[in-house]
UniProtKB/TrEMBL annotation:
Family in the record: Belongs to the metallophosphoesterase superfamily. CPPED1 family.
Pfam family membership, one: Metallophos
Molecular function in Gene Ontology: metal ion binding; protein serine/threonine phosphatase activity
Keywords assigned: Cytoplasm, Hydrolase, Metal-binding
Subcellular location: Cytoplasm
Principal localisation: cytoplasm
CDD domains, alphabetized: MPP_CSTP1
Name recorded for this polypeptide: Serine/threonine-protein phosphatase CPPED1
Domain of life: Eukaryota
Cofactor dependence: a divalent metal cation
Annotated Gene Ontology cellular component terms: cytoplasm
Taxonomic lineage of the native organism: Eukaryota, Metazoa, Chordata, Craniata, Vertebrata
Amino acid sequence: MTAPSATVDSSDMFHRAKQRTFRGFSGDAEHQWNGPFYFIQAADPQLGLMKAWKDGNCDGGGDEWTEEVELTKQAVEATNRLRPRPRFMVLCGDLVHSMPGTEFKEGQERDLKEALKGTDPSIPLVFVSGNHDIGNTPTPSTVEHFCRTWGDDYFSFWVGGVLCLVLNSQLFFDASACPQLKEAQETWLEEQLSRAASSSSARPKHILVFQHIPLYLKNPDEEEDYFNLQKGVRQKLLDRFRKAGVKAVFSGHYHRNAGACHDGLDMVVSSAIGCQLGEDAHGVRVVVVTADRVVHRYHSLERLSAAGMDEDLRALLEA
């Protein structure tokens, strides 16, 4: 899919985050716990990677993205058929493959918006920035482009008594070209965590974090590489999240399922809607939030389309 498609006005389709607040949910009612609910976590539609991976040119390829468009549409259709419908669907980064300023980025972003256009209006879409969205070393201009196209790169929202924090993990990974943006996110995050931990009137039932790069893949002490955060950064975030009572961190980036739970903090790494780098199928994760647990399971798109969410997860919503 290389030919330009019609321009899509995302403001008509998506509740984009502005001023660090997500507009898909509003009102004090969302600060109150009203019983179990669920949402869909997806990652890495990354339009263009499948062709680039086949060609062995992941740095400069990506001139074809029909497969990813069809997979994204399949994810949207499967999600629309779920009953009850999820409270929201979050895409944890690498929305497209082309890096900022490269040839195919505009077309990929346009076609992803078109593929997501079929999402039922009752299901808000939450967008997380990934390294391919803002660059491995983001700059003020690449972050500004993401914010203009998809909404704020970090923000918070409440849903059903749960506080959700969306973070720009690239600012943790390499903010050498935009240190002021890193400092601003750090200040904002500390305010959010401190407020949540000290609040007596509207203390969240759970705190959930969404970012692109995992803190770690399997173990908090593992060596650092392309697919996780550096050890020093990782440990500081783990300490801050545990102190504030964060229940789970949801991520993508790895294009395989991974993760673990240590000291009560669940690190969830979900495989991709798009290109698979391991043995997993194209899919999304169903996440059920109850009063005392956050239970999640990866579903292939084929399985979710044919049978919906697993019955044991559905039963948690009725408990």
